[in-house]
Amino acid sequence: xxxxxxxxxxxxxxxxxxxxxxxxxxxxxxxxxxxxxxxxxxxxxxxxxxxxxxxxxxxxxxxxxxxxxxxxxxxxxxxxxxxxxxxxxxxxxxxxxxxxxxxxxxxxxxxxxxxxxxxxxxxxxxxxxxxxxxxxxxxxxxxxxxxxxxxxxxxxxxxxxxxxxxxxxxxxxxxxxxxxxxxxxxxxx
Length: 189
What we know:
The protein contains 4 helices and 10 strands. With 189 residues, it is an alpha+beta fold. The strands form 2 sheets. A 7-stranded mixed β-sheet has the order 1-2-3-4-5-10-6, with helices on both faces. It has a 3-stranded antiparallel β-sheet with strand order 8-7-9, covered by helices on one side. The radius of gyration is 18 Å and the shape is globular.
């Protein structure tokens, strides 16, 4: 009834490559950063039940590749609340398997944002190792939307209005907590 010791059965879900637009709605509904995705995307993975896509992951090269050469970053990871217990660990194991099989990188990197209460339980459960913390994060809040500070320097249709809102005081910049940095070393022997 509750799935036993393996509530997320491998027969219950399929993991496959997909397009960002296939999982964007999940990010918009369930991820604290929403469906906006800056930076490069190497590939996306979906977690599908027989009926629907219930999870998604966005994988890309790390922004700070000098610190983490030969690695890929799990840039976003999202699951629908309908997923049973341990689905996140199961999905992470399949993400690592996919990266190992389809790339030559030796390290998988991900972050847990302490500002929103994420402490990395799923990464610990999937044998990732906590290697440190980033500096404290900053976020810009404007019209009920949270923006990354990079939004002030990039050229996007909204960035000019955002810069002006910060100058006028209608957008506020808030300091948050750091992010925990987790690393998984891929064994290629």
